[in-house]
Amino acid sequence: MNEGRTRPLRADAARNRARLLDVAAEVFTERGLGVTTEEIARAAGVGVGTLFRHFPTKEALLQAVLVRRMERLVADGTELAEREQPAEAFFAAFRLVVDRSAGKEEFARALASAGIDVHAGLGELSGAVRELLERLLTGAQRAGAVRPELGVPELIALLVGTNASMEQLGPDPAAHERIFQVVFAGLRPAPADR
Amino acid sequence: MNEGRTRPLRADAARNRARLLDVAAEVFTERGLGVTTEEIARAAGVGVGTLFRHFPTKEALLQAVLVRRMERLVADGTELAEREQPAEAFFAAFRLVVDRSAGKEEFARALASAGIDVHAGLGELSGAVRELLERLLTGAQRAGAVRPELGVPELIALLVGTNASMEQLGPDPAAHERIFQVVFAGLRPAPADR
Amino acid sequence: MNEGRTRPLRADAARNRARLLDVAAEVFTERGLGVTTEEIARAAGVGVGTLFRHFPTKEALLQAVLVRRMERLVADGTELAEREQPAEAFFAAFRLVVDRSAGKEEFARALASAGIDVHAGLGELSGAVRELLERLLTGAQRAGAVRPELGVPELIALLVGTNASMEQLGPDPAAHERIFQVVFAGLRPAPADR
Amino acid sequence: MNEGRTRPLRADAARNRARLLDVAAEVFTERGLGVTTEEIARAAGVGVGTLFRHFPTKEALLQAVLVRRMERLVADGTELAEREQPAEAFFAAFRLVVDRSAGKEEFARALASAGIDVHAGLGELSGAVRELLERLLTGAQRAGAVRPELGVPELIALLVGTNASMEQLGPDPAAHERIFQVVFAGLRPAPADR
DNA sequence: TATGAATGAGGCTTCATTCAT
DNA sequence: AATGAATGAAGCCTCATTCAT
């Protein structure tokens, strides 16, 4: 009955949850997965109890951060795929993913460390990601802009790898661009001769 | 090389040290940096006390493992550089580095986690690595086999990134080869036209 | 009974209080004193805040549960004492107490854990209990149905003990009856000879 | 090979383990199962780490305490059974069990709380206890000293119950004796008449 | 007055490092 | 020099209680 406005009680809770996600994303990224739950809570301006009320486990928090990140990536990537020509969409999306992953390389580690659980939680989402990547990749391949022998696994690997390269370089836009040039050139079909 | 008398008491100690390094390299690689010192010691067949006698800190052990790995890389890379033609040497060394790093990606994390300290310990070594890479890179560039605008930082970044790609793919030699093809193609000078 | 105007607001409050007592009695009994206040509140269909409005402390709630249980016991025991012959009243009351305590053994633990405080709260009540027990006991002793050397403390101890026996046995009516037979036989005056 | 003396290294460890068991038995008994591991360790004069080195879990420590207690009971009860006439052995053992359990009532709670795990750990031991009790009980029954309709479960229940009675009474030897008289009288076969 | 989100002290447990043997 | 038991700081998480809505 009470349409329109958000219910006052949940307002603070929602804000805290969002705040925790934002802060956790930042702090995990900048200081690694080793940050204590206490630190995250303090950075978010709440008590540990609040953190654990919203996320039953440290890992659950990490997972939530990852999910949110991916959801956004998928959303933006999908938009790209619909707006641009296949080849442009593909390369733009490649940049998008790498840029968005900037500073988050350690998150990849979460997959290894937290392993199965994280994946499980990301489950349905992973499907969406995969579908989007497949759509972008095959589109670009049909357009003759990308080597036909590559599959989604290789694409993901190259995304992860390119991101790792960027991490390694540190913040140097020009150098980043040179890496992109190398990878993009390499992605294009090999010249017929040789 | 061993200049004079061997000190009998040191024999066991040296063996233990070597054993610890071997085992630590393996166990860090396979189970991550989270392995406990106790586990490493047990795997090496010694007590924790012995581990800490040889390496004052868990991090020091990790560093020693990294140093040894790099020393070997530099030695093998140098040999390559001396034996092969510049272009061949470059690409062979690229493969060498990536293959040798296989399964060790988490070590890169040590740089982030343990940060400065590790670097410090690697200090002098880094110089040697850098020199070798520079020699290989400029050789290949002079031979026209690699884009001239790339520098050593980009090369290192691409090595790290390619390694990350391989890690992501898991053990699939054919897929690994496709990644190498992409990166190598991308490393070659851009065609004149366009 | 309700002397004048009903205060509408209190109606809900009273209902909540009663509900909480009922639910707490049940849940404490079935899942132990370890149940969280949150669970009790949820089981009662109210928020924790409400629970704490009615009972300032988890322990206070436990105490209230105990008090209510005893009030009822005293009431029923008193009725028995007035209705039956001394000996019959005594043994019937003994059964009554044990049966009513069924499944509540852990409550005895509350005495140890919460200790003094609970006793304090039960204070006045304990007097009533004691008086009733004394009345029942001396009645039965005068009737020659119970050993004359026993006092109220021993009676209470035997009640507690018999209850513990029943708890230990689990729900087996026949076995329970055998225990009662042993205890009742033991309570009767020792035969003159030997 | 090193026969005879205990190995020096283990000496302290064994002493610490024993010390922890003794102290834990005492402290669990006197202050309930709620005592913190920290307190137990402090009382034993060791660090928490040492406690956890010897007992992987707080519950494991509790179980070890229970096992030791039972082992001793079984040993002493067995000796009794072999030394005395059946009836005397039975009643002496009954006293032994109750006296030994003095102050340990809360341990019974452990069975409920820790449940399965504790039982599991006690597994083989429970068999020994049961056998001993059966031997004592049937011996006394054959000698006509105990009601024939009672089984081991009832015996255990009465032991537990009598212990609870004693707990309830507090330290009052004369009162304890009165309880024993009641229970022992009740255990004897019912008089033929009536 | 009811709600349930927030709080934070405190519990159990782990593990790098030290030290007695 | 080697061993492994001991140490204790620190991490994650729970839960009785408080407080804003």
Number of separate helices of chain A? 9
> Which CATH top level class of the largest domain in chain A fits?
Mainly Alpha
Total E-strand runs of chain A: 0
| Helix/strand order of chain A | HHHHHHHHH
Question: Would you write up a description of this structure?
Answer:
Four copies of one chain form a homotetramer. Chain A is mostly helical and 194 residues long. Chain A has two domains: 1-56, Arc Repressor Mutant, subunit A, CATH 1.10.10.60; 58-187, Tetracycline Repressor, domain 2, CATH 1.10.357.10. Chain A has nine helices and no strands. In chain A, α1 (8-31) crosses α4. The first copy, chain A, is elongated and about 60 Å long. Mean pLDDT of chain A is 84; it is low at 1-7 and 109-118. Chains in contact: A-B, C-D. Chain A binds a DNA duplex (21 and 21 nucleotides) through residues 8-13, 16, 36-38, 46-50, 52-54, 56-58. Chains A, B, C, D: Residues 36-55 bind DNA. Chains A, B, C, D: Residues 14-73 form the HTH tetR-type domain.
Write the layout of secondary structure elements.
The structure is a homotetramer.
Chain A: H1 8-31, H2 37-44, H3 48-54, H4 58-83, H5 86-101, H6 105-113, H7 116-142, H8 152-169, H9 173-187
Helix pairs in contact in A: 1-2, 1-4, 4-5, 4-7, 5-7, 5-8, 8-9
Chain A binds a DNA duplex (21 and 21 nucleotides) through α1 and α3.
